[in-house]
Write a structure and sequence with these properties.
Blueprint (H helix, E strand, L loop, with lengths): L1 H5 L4 H7 L18 E5 L5 E3 L1 H4 L5 E3 L2 E4 L5 E5 L2 E5 H8 L12 E7 L4 E5 H5 L7 E7 L2 E2 L8 E4 L13 E8 L3
Parallel strand pairs: 1-12
Antiparallel strand pairs: 1-2, 3-6, 4-5, 6-9, 7-8, 7-12, 9-10, 9-11
Length: 179
Amino acid sequence: MLKKILAGFTSVALLAAAPAWSAVPAPARDNMSHALAVTGKVATPLTLKVADLRQLPPANGGEIAVTRHNGDKAETITSYKGVRLRDILDKAALDAPGHNDAKKIAIIATATDGYAVVFSWGELYNSPAGEGVIVYYEKNGKALDDGDGEIALISAKDIRTGPRHVKWLNAIEVRKLVE
């Protein structure tokens, strides 16, 4: 009987309908990201694949512990290779013509599974933290796999790096928060 009831639902619908404590994450291969769309308040919306990201100025990092919001260690990345989020935004050209417009901008990085994190313009462009916000395509000397998607993001200078570690990254949206 349960099989019959569940037969009409997709796995996404089942996850959305299930209570949080019983939800089972979709297999990683279902979340694979193949391109990154940059949209919103930009002069030039972009769609970037790994080959396109490799054409931007490289940003490499060494060992970093990915820690959860409670401080527990999730994993250790020994090295990563990618590009600064700031360089991607510069390529898209933020649409902030007024003197104070840039200060009102938020950047939302979203994964294929809906996970999203937020950065402010000030954080990326006017703080040391911006140096460490990396969209990466290689980890531990290899291309990313199904567990990360082809493209991921990490905020390497965060104290707890896990909450803004976005696997399966597929979208960057630039929003002006207030007029």
